[in-house]
Design a protein that fits this description.
18 helices, 49% helix, five-stranded parallel β-sheet, binds NADPH dihydro-nicotinamide-adenine-dinucleotide phosphate, five-stranded mixed β-sheet, binds (2Z)-2-iminopentanedioic acid
Length: 443
């Protein structure tokens, strides 16, 4: 049996029920075949793939907290420190009811290659909790965050592991988490990124994932003889990534016509009103049903998906496995030319294959959404030198990083005989650096 297939089988057997983790491993390892074949003897002797799919450390902990009625609640917290070959563990925290170890491991595994692609010295990690922030008061969020950090602070640090946000974790949560770390440790350190600008945060970090997505899309389109300006774009999600992807798409002359949340989706034929969206989601923390009050011409739907709306470019920015084969078929039938993943693993494996086989330019999340973690690494640099850079400086660095990521994935795809396959290109380019570092450091 091929080495890659042996390791995929091993992962499924050793991690029963963790279907998202299986999916992420399959997607990466399948596309590493050419590079693994070329180095099979060394990789097998060094058990390189077996080491790659086994987290260096998995931490699972109890998070007790008190709700507004005085009732004690208990959630489960996780931190998976997956791979530190090229730098301290780095990756977000996700607070969502559906979180379990399989989700955190898939995200941590993806993060290894994403972080490598940025060219910055950051390893892969991820964490979170099955805590559901929906409908919770600020005090309840604070109570939960303080308890979560009471345990997590034993395992992280500026040179060890530096968490940040993900679904359900934004500036408010990072503020509470940072405050608790500082109080317990008695030290003001860059232990988290996505911090407020008043206490060590970086300009552009809020916008970075969405802006970076558009910078990478721009590179991919121009490289293939297209441009963003004048294009109709569909976006899913309405959180941090979606909002700033839409903002940058509009700045670059495209028109975004959809957004969604877990209850429904909006079609606004005149183009999504970003100011209204920010007010609804960032300030009032409301549902998308409110959008029609700002834009009477828009439609709100509970059934179906945003992918039924004809577009040139589709940007899934909500969550894993939200773009299925039927959606991919609809996109192709409606004349879509490009898909770039703002979320992590939003496109199912069969949908990805279908899009690629039908000539759609496809930018995988680990390349396309790497702008967030890249800017987090720039925040770490600023914290280390105890300085803050200007918006323009960080934004320029972000643009250069995203252009570099496109170049790396396009080059790797060429080198390994699959030109234009950016999924394989991103996986191979991300893997090469980590593999070489692991081999150099020995057992
Ligand atoms: P937010 O919490 O800010 O927003 C998430 C959005 O996606 C919300 O609109 C939410 O709807 C929707 N959503 C989440 N889960 C589901 C679901 N199961 N079904 C339908 N809609 C859902 O998160 P982010 O914008 O930060 O993250 C979005 C994606 O981008 C995630 O995949 C994340 O891993 C990825 N990402 C984030 C980065 C960052 O810097 N923040 C960096 C790189 C990737 P609702 O309000 O109803 O929950
Ligand atoms: O998926 C991701 O890359 C993130 N949620 C951002 C991680 C980070 O450390 O900024």
């Amino acid at each position: 049996m091929a080495y890659v297939d042996e390791v995929i089988e091993l992962v499924v057997k050793k991690n029963p029920g963790e279907i998202e983790f299986h999916q992420a491993v399959k997607e990466v390892l399948e596309s590493l075949r050419p590079i693994v074949d070329a180095h099979e003897e060394v990789y097998r002797r060094e058990a390189l793939l077996e080491r790659l799919v086994e987290p260096e450390r998995q931490i699972k902990f109890r998070v007790p907290w008190i709700d507004d009625k005085g009732q004690v609640q208990v959630n489960t917290g996780y931190r998976v420190q997956f791979n530190s070959a090229i730098g301290p563990y780095k990756g977000g925290l996700r607070f969502r009811r559906s979180v379990y170890i399989g989700i955190i491991k898939f995200l941590g595994f993806e993060q290894i290659f994403k972080n490598s692609l940025t060219g910055l010295p950051i390893g892969g990690g991820k964490g979170g909790s099955d805590f559901d922030p929906k409908g919770k008061s600020d005090r309840e969020i604070m109570s939960f965050c303080k308890s979560f950090m009471t345990e997590l602070c034993k395992h992280i640090g500026a040179d060890v592991d530096v968490p940040a946000g993900d679904i359900g974790v934004g500036g408010r949560e990072i503020g509470y988490l940072f405050g608790q770390y500082k109080n317990i440790k008695g030290a003001f350190e860059g232990c988290l990124t996505g911090k407020g600008l008043e206490f060590g945060g970086s300009l552009v970090r809020t916008e970075a994932t969405g802006y970076g997505l558009l910078y990478l899309l721009d590179e991919m389109l121009r490289h293939n003889g297209h441009e963003i300006s004048g294009k109709t774009v569909t976006v899913s999600g309405s959180g941090n990534v979606a909002i700033y992807a839409i903002e940058k798409a509009h700045q670059l002359g495209a028109k975004v016509v959809t957004v969604s949340d877990s209850n429904g989706w909006v079609y606004d034929p005149d183009g999504i009103d970003v100011a209204a969206l920010k007010e609804i989601k960032e300030q009032k923390r409301q549902r998308l049903t409110e959008y029609k009050k700002y834009r009477p011409n828009s439609e709100y739907h509970e059934d179906g998906t945003v992918w039924s709306i004809p577009c040139h470019i589709a940007l899934p920015c909500a969550t894993q496995n939200e773009l299925h084969l039927a959606d991919a078929q609809a996109l192709v039938d409606n004349g879509c030319i490009a898909v770039a993943e703002g979320a992590n693993m939003p496109t199912t494996l069969d949908a990805t294959k279908y899009l690629q086989q039908h000539g759609i330019l496809f930018a995988p999340g680990k390349a396309a959404n790497a702008g967030g973690v890249a800017t987090s690494a720039l925040e770490m640099s600023q914290n280390s030198e105890r300085l803050s850079w200007s918006f323009e400086k960080v934004d320029r660095r972000l643009q250069r990083i995203m252009a570099g990521i496109f170049q790396k994935m396009a080059d790797a795809a060429e080198r390994y005989g699959v030109p234009g396959d950016y999924v394989a290109g991103a996986n191979i380019a991300g893997f090469e650096k980590v593999a070489n570092a692991m081999l150099a450091q020995g057992i």
